[in-house]
Structure formats: structure tokens, C-alpha cells
Amino acid sequence: MKRIVTVLGARPQFIKASVVSHALRMSDQLKETLVHTGQHFDNNMSEVFFEELGIPKPDHWLNIHGGGHGEMTGRMLAKVEEVLLTEGPDLVMVYGDTNSTLAGALAAVKLNIPVAHVEAGLRSFNMNMPEEINRILTDRISSWLFAPTAASNAHLLREGLANSHIEEVGDVMYDVALHYGRKVNASGQVLEKLNLNPRSYVLATVHRAENTNQLHRLLAIVDGLEMVAQSIPVVWALHPRTRTVLQKMGRLSELSRKVCVIDPVGYLDMVQLEKYAAVIATDSGGVQKEAFFYQVPCVTLRDETEWIELLTSGWNRLVPPVSSYSIHDAILSALGAKGEKIQPYGDGNAAQKIVRALSR
Ligand code: UDP
To answer: Which domains does the chain have, with CATH numbers?
Structure first.
């Protein structure tokens, strides 16, 4: 029996890990131990995903959050190292591009424990993003690179990483969306609570540092969404970081009068909000893809995206958030838009492929 320690800590990682963790529990050759760094800790940013997606309770809870990027990553590095010394795993598995990802991978390689990186090879080519730094460094020190798409596979090869370390398995988020997307319909849940009809509202999420830390960008988004709300209801599931900034700016109460501002929701409510939205406006990586999974047009409030196949196929359009008017116009003109028929994210069996590869 080979032993795997999975290090996770942020919302999208719980969602990605849920399906791999489930496949690992089915394996009689691999055993998983879960380490939660504590990066996201509110009930609606963490616990709800463990409950809804059937993830076992973490074996280790490190309770590390807040502080600067360096401080947070450094504290995680030290604590994960302690856990790895106690657990002595054969492999460490990490997901995506957060500080928890980098800390987990770095702690492991420094102890000569091989690392598997799920969602390897994504690139924005923008080194100002903390996520880009985390993912490039993690890829460089990983022995198993599980690439979600052909484009991410090509980035890894172009950077000189060995073909023998790369497996293009598809996107684990697609596995999860296929499973839960089928279960969620338009009745009950959050749609009923918010009194929303299918296809009659715009769903928004915003949390990237490049938007929350630059007030002119955040204001363009706030003004743009308020303008959109004059034509069609806007539901904004407000990330805790974005809420704090808007509160400090004194802009939250006016926004709440014009836009339906809600706290972050659990995964099943999010699937319902996404599946029945008319348009999704977001700076989230995961939400861009989920818009496509549910065939909803998406407006991405960023300068670039890692998921380029959604741009070229017409499902997504990039709108750098510098003008409220361009945000307003892009959202309204995306209403009813469709893209080409594509299937870039695998066949819904990414998690099985990862577990099969690791068992080999
Ligand atoms: N999500 C959620 N509730 C919310 C907002 C997002 O369950 O209120 C889910 C969403 O469906 C997706 C994931 O969180 O699966 C995306 O995470 P996030 O936007 O935090 O990170 P990113 O994907 O940008 O790394």
C-alpha cells in the first residue's frame, strides 16, 4: 500500500480534490491522508464543501491563514514539513495554484518526497499574479504533472519539462460538474430563496488580487454591474476579501441596494446559480469553466485567461475591468450568445486516470 499526503487549503482545491479523493478511497493500492492548511476557513468557504462533496474530515488541520504571501507560505512550509516527517508518505499531492499548493510541494521536495501536481501547465503569462508564480514553481518541482488540457500540456513541454512526467488526463472540475450538474435542477435551493427565474439574471463573482487590490478596477466592476442591474437582475456572490475591500471603501451599502449581494454559497447552490444564469461575469478560473460546462455565456473580468480554448470557441470573452461601460456592454451583448461545440476538458474521467497513473 502506497501512502499519499494531499495538501489543500482553498475553496477550488476542495472541489478538485473531492473527486480524486473519492477515487483514491476506491483503490486498494493507495491510501490518502488529508492536510488542510487553513488558508480558507469560514464555514461557507471550507466546511460546506467537505459536507456536500463527501470529502473525509482532514487528518491534519494547520490553521494558517492571513498575513502576507511570504509569511503565509513560510508558515505553511514549516508546518507541512512537520506533518510529512510524521506521516512519511510515498507521494505528496497538490492542486492548482495557491500558497497551499506551493508550500505543500516545496515541503515535499525538500524531503525528497515526489510531488504530483493536479492542474499542471496552466499559464497566464502574467508574473504579477501570485497564482502564476505558485503554479510555475510547483510544476518545476513536481514528478507527476497532470495537465487538464492540450494547451497546458504544450506549455509544460515548451518549458522543457520531461514528456515522461506529463499526463494529459482532462480536468477534474469537469468530472465534478458532470456528476453534480445532473443532480441540480431549477427548483428549490437558492433560486427559490432569492426569487429568481432561470435565465433571468446575471451571476457575478470577483476575488482576484489584481481586481480587489486595484481600486480603479474594482470600482469599474461595481459601477458596471450596477449599470447592468438596471436591465437584468445581478446576483453577486461576494468573496470575503472583496467584501472587506468594498466595506472599507464605503461602497457596499449602495451596491447592495442595486445588486443582489449574497455571501459565498456552497457548491450545490453555486451549480444551480451557474446552470440557470443568463450570463456569468467572473474573474474566477473555475467559474469560467463551469459557465462552459453548463453552456452559459461568460464575461471574464481580467486582462488574460489560462483557459484560452473558451475564448477561441466563443464561449467566453475577456473584458479588462478598466471601464464600467465596456463591462456593461459586454455583459448585455453576451445575453443569448453561444460558442462552438468543443470538448477540451477530457471525458469526465480525469480523477480515475490520475489514480490509475499513480497506481502504476
Ligand atoms: N464557488 C462556490 N461558491 C461560491 C463561489 C464559487 O462553490 O460562492 C465554487 C465554484 O463553483 C468553483 C470554485 O468555487 O467550483 C471556484 O473557486 P474560486 O473562484 O474561489 O477560485 P479559482 O477557480 O479562481 O481558483
So the answer is: 2-171+346-359 (3.40.50.2000), 189-334 (3.40.50.2000)
